[in-house]
Amino acid sequence: MAYGVFTMLSRLNNSCTPNAAATWNDDAQRMSLHALRPIATNEEITISYGQPLFATRAERRSYLKRTRGFDCICGACRSTDPSSDARREELKRLFTSIPFVPDPATGVKMVRISLHRQSLRRLSCDAMMANHVVQVLQALQTLRTEGIDLCADVLAYDAAQFCFAASDMKHGREWLEYAYDYKCRASGVESETAQYFAKCLQSSSPPDPLASHNRPMILWGPPS
Ligand SMILES: [Zn+2]
Predict the structure, then answer these.
(1) Protein residues with C-beta less than 5 angstroms from the ion ligand 1
(2) What is the pLDDT of residue 99?
(3) CA–centroid distance, residue 110 to ligand 1 (Å)
(4) How many domains does the chain contain in total?
(5) How many Å lie between the centroid of ligand 1 and the Cα of residue 66?
(6) Is residue 23 part of a domain?
(7) 88 with 151, same domain?
(8) Fewer CB within 10 A of the end CB, N or C, for the chain?
């Protein structure tokens, strides 16, 4: 493990709806800063100091006070929007219930276990995978409404695995492209995760677990 002091980046202030993200690139031994959305002239560039973002205003402020010693007065914490806390709690709920699928093989295994356990074989798989993709779409929409431009790659990658596991190869690929495009924007094309997504896109198609079924399963692709 290495440590460093970054004289420029350490001057950036915190926000609970940051407009930029700092990423460490191990290969280049370099820290880079990327805009998460268009930043207006004279608008302050902000990053997250690592507080839980899927938490209420009181929880975030308490965390930052305890760990960093300041009262957060970012736009989200100053907002009087009564729905903000509910949206953050909804995001927490969605991120807890969407299973993490590290790779296509695990996704396929998930489907096989589900098929093995349930008698309504095809239906159970349809329902499970469709439900997870719907949750991903809900989470992306809620992130957008709340102004949090983070985590889209994690969600899109999971959605890709759900589609692959359900034999919807077309949408799986679209989700992978979405994850790659987002990560290039948010962390740079050289970032480890962007490189990983690029490798997934170049590799041969993942196994098609339901190829023997007559009816192809069509889920949903990423939002435009
Ligand atoms: Zn805040």
Answers:
(1) 16, 72, 74, 77
(2) 82
(3) 38
(4) 2
(5) 14
(6) yes
(7) yes
(8) N
Give residue 74 CA to ligand 1 midpoint distance, Å: 4
**51 and 98 co-located in one domain:** no
CA of 22 to the centre of ligand 1 (A): 17
- Domain match, 93 and 195 both: yes
Helix 121-146 with 84-97: angle, nearest 10 deg:
150
What H or E segment, with its residue span, contains residue 31? Answer: strand 30-35
Residue 210 belongs to a domain: no
Q: Which domain holds residue 148?
A: 83-202
Give the mean model confidence (pLDDT) for residues 62-86: 95
Please give the torsion angle defined by the CA atoms of residues 120, 121, 124 and 129, in that order, rounded to the nearest 10 degrees: -170
Q: Would you place residue 1 in the very low, low, confident or very high pLDDT band (cuts 50, 70, 90)?
A: low
91 class by beta-carbon count within 10 Å (0-12 exposed, 13-18 middle, 19+ buried): buried
